[in-house]
UniProtKB/TrEMBL annotation:
<dbReference type="Pfam" id="PF00656">
    <property type="entry name" value="Peptidase_C14"/>
</dbReference>
<dbReference type="GO" id="GO:0004197">
    <property type="term" value="F:cysteine-type endopeptidase activity"/>
</dbReference>
<feature type="domain" description="Peptidase C14 caspase">
    <location>
        <begin position="67"/>
        <end position="225"/>
    </location>
</feature>
<dbReference type="InterPro" id="IPR011600">
    <property type="entry name" value="Pept_C14_caspase"/>
</dbReference>
<protein>
    <submittedName>
        <fullName>Caspase family protein</fullName>
    </submittedName>
</protein>
<dbReference type="InterPro" id="IPR029030">
    <property type="entry name" value="Caspase-like_dom_sf"/>
</dbReference>
<dbReference type="GO" id="GO:0006508">
    <property type="term" value="P:proteolysis"/>
</dbReference>
């Protein structure tokens, strides 16, 4: 099993309408040095195409033809085997349109972008015949729309390459940044950290580490950049990163008592990978961190620690947010998991829109037959929920300063009970209703 790499960095563009990227060549060379130093790649199997050096070798400059020629050679002349790994890494400008996505090479003409740039569609056709079964395409480029002179406001487009694992520096509409005090772009810097981390064994490990690093560094410079990865439905943690082998997750025997923990863990990770919780949203940070922890405890089968992490996820930890709590509660099925949510809803620091969070929690609870039964007999839990509803009924969530009629609240509760097929009276007695 061998690793092959095609590393492309464009620092200087011929067209004056395309702003140069002075550190692109340096960054791609720094990446190549780390890959070789860590023993992941041999120099003979790494093809570096950059323009930050003196020389007249046309085939080693990031023009359109040398890149195409290099990929054709890999497919038809190089002895690449199925169990090998191919890394294609590009640092430069990108552009996206309804006709397709492009990467901008040294000889790209801004006036004729679609004619002179390298189409991502063509790039995928060139990479597809290469025999390596594991292919990672990485683009350290912005992805926002092009307007006027092409500089930091470029786009790699919104299309995805489903047949390969594709890593983008940011999500559509965002920018890719280089800190003022650094020569390395955020993505490339984080990717190098992943290469240097011996515990980064799988593509999933790599992506999590890259996200953490980019999020931390972008927040320090008040930037908004979220790495994006497309795996075409592949299981990220089962695919080795570079030449590394991922750890096998042990199967959980039936009747072991950990079934519920495993279910919650898988659901949390499902949400994480489906991107329902964007990495850049601060209120979702506790969920993101806890989801990663849950995966670790799934492997270790540590019930006590799992419970601790789950409670942190549901509002017991620092920086927990009621929105994180209310959305995550949808995927739980243990009454103890709902109590932190309802307590959060009843807390004095939450106002206004909390009523909708409480109602959402109530619907989740009533839709779970087992939890609904617990609620009918747990008077303390019921009292906390009633307190949350009572506090929240005083302010309209969308009309600031206007009262939120209790009749609207109870109308909503009646609808919820009906959808959940739970008798209203079994949850709230006349005495409970009188408290509002």
């Amino acid at each position: 099993m061998a690793n092959y790499a095609v590393l492309v960095g464009v620092s200087n563009y011929y067209d004056p309408q395309i702003i140069d990227l002075p550190h692109a060549g340096f960054s791609i060379r720094r990446l190549s040095e780390v890959l070789v130093a860590k023993g992941e790649f041999e120099l003979s199997k790494m093809l570096l195409i950059a323009d930050d050096h003196e020389g007249n070798d046309y085939l080693k400059m990031p023009y359109k033809f040398p890149v195409i020629s290099t990929l054709l050679d890999l497919a038809h002349k190089w002895p690449i085997q199925k169990d090998d790994f191919l890394l294609f890494y590009f640092i430069g400008h990108g552009y996206g349109s309804v006709k397709g996505d492009q990467i901008l090479l040294k000889d790209t003409c801004f006036r004729y972008l679609e004619e002179t740039a390298l189409s991502v569609g063509v790039l995928t056709k060139l990479v597809r015949p290469i025999r390596a079964m594991r292919k990672l395409l990485a683009f350290d480029s912005c992805r926002n729309e092009v307007e006027g002179t092409l500089g930091t406001h470029e786009s790699l487009g919104k299309s995805r390459i489903d047949e390969f694992i594709t890593l983008y520096a940011c999500k559509p509409g965002e920018l890719a940044y280089i800190p003022y005090n650094d020569k390395l772009p955020l993505l490339t810097s984080a990717f190098i950290d992943a290469v240097e981390d011996k515990n980064c064994l799988s593509i999933g490990n790599m992506y999590n580490l890259v996200c953490d690093k980019v999020n931390a560094r972008s927040s320090q410079i008040a930037a908004w950049q979220t790495p994006d990865l497309c795996a075409g439905g592949k299981e990220l943690d089962s695919i080795g990163f570079l030449s590394r082998a991922p750890r096998n997750v042990p199967d959980v025997p039936e009747g072991s008592g950990f079934e519920q923990e495993i279910i919650l863990t898988n659901q949390a990770l499902h949400l994480l990978y489906k991107e329902k919780y964007p990495h850049h949203a601060p209120s979702y940070a506790p969920f993101m961190n806890a989801a990663k922890e849950l995966k670790n405890w799934q492997q270790k089968l540590d019930r006590k620690t799992f419970r601790k992490v789950a409670f942190n996820l549901l509002g017991k930890g620092e920086n927990a947010d009621v929105y994180t709590v209310s959305y995550m509660v949808r995927w739980g099925s243990d009454a103890t998991m709902f109590r932190p949510l309802i307590e959060s809803l009843a807390a004095e620091k939450y106002r206004g829109t909390v009523v909708w969070q409480a109602l959402d929690a109530l619907e989740v609870i009533l839709r779970n037959e087992q939890v609904a039964k617990w609620l009918t007999v747990d008077e303390e839990l019921k009292a906390i929920l009633i307190k949350a509803l009572s506090r929240s009924a005083g302010e309209h969530p969308t009309r600031k300063g206007q009262p939120f009629a209790p009749s609207v609240v109870w109308g909503k509760i009646l609808q919820i009970c009906k959808r959940a097929d739970v008798p209203f009276q079994s949850v709230f007695s006349p005495e409970a209703l009188a408290q509002l």
